[in-house]
Amino acid sequence: VKPVGGANTRDMPSTARIGAQDLLSGRFQGQTVRAIGRLVHIDSGHVHLQLAGEGPNAIVDSSSSGLFTHDGVNKDFFEVIGSLQAENVISPMQCVHLGDKFDLDLYAEMMALSHQFGEVF
C-alpha cells in the first residue's frame, strides 16, 4: 500500500477516526481527520466516499491525485487523512488505496473503541 500526497507520515498531526455519523454531528469540522470509505462516485475534481455507519458521504478533493479511478467505483476502499471542512468536504493531505476487500462494519466497531479508549489508539 503506497500513500499518495505530499505529506510525510511522521509530519501528520494526531487524527480522529471518523465515520458517517461524525459528518452529521459536525464535531470534527475544522480538524484533521482520518476517514476510510468505499469509493461510490467520481465527479469533476471530487470523489465521494461512503464511510462506516449511516449518514452522508464524505467528499474528497481529488484534483491532485490520480489514485481514484472509475474502475474502482463501488468496490475500492481508501483512507484519507485531511482537514474536514463544511459540507462534509475533506481537503486531503494523504490518500491511501486499501484495495477492494475491507470490512467497514468491523472498522466501525474499531472506530467506536478508538473514541471510547483514545489513549490506546
What this model shows, in words?
This protein has two helices and seven strands, in the order E-E-H-E-E-E-E-E-H. It has 121 residues and is an alpha+beta fold. The chain has one domain (3-7, 13-98): OB fold (Dihydrolipoamide Acetyltransferase, E2P) (Beta Barrel). It has a five-stranded mixed β-barrel with strand order 3-4-5-7-6. The mean pLDDT is 88. One of its GO terms (molecular function) is DNA binding. Its main location: nucleus. InterPro entries: NA-bd_OB-fold, Rfa2.
Write a compact overview of the structure shown:
Its main location: nucleus. With 121 residues, the chain is of the alpha+beta class. 16% of the residues lie in helices and 38% in strands.
CATH topology: OB fold (Dihydrolipoamide Acetyltransferase, E2P)
State the share of residues found in helices, binned by percent: 10-25%
Which strands sit side by side, in order, in the main sheet? Answer: 3-4-5-7-6
Q: Residue-averaged pLDDT, rounded?
A: 88
- Broad structural category: alpha+beta
CATH second-level architecture: Beta Barrel
CA distance, first residue to last residue? 21 Å
Biggest sheet record: 5 strands, mixed, barrel
Number of helices: 2
CATH superfamily: Nucleic acid-binding proteins
Strands, total number: 7
Strand content: 35-45%
Number of domains: 1
The first-level CATH class name: Mainly Beta
What shape does the CA trace take? Answer: globular
SSE string: EEHEEEEEH
Rg over CA atoms, rounded to whole Å, is 13 Å
Keywords: Nucleus
Pfam family, one: Rep_fac-A_3
InterPro entries: NA-bd_OB-fold, Rfa2
GO cellular component, one term: nuclear lumen
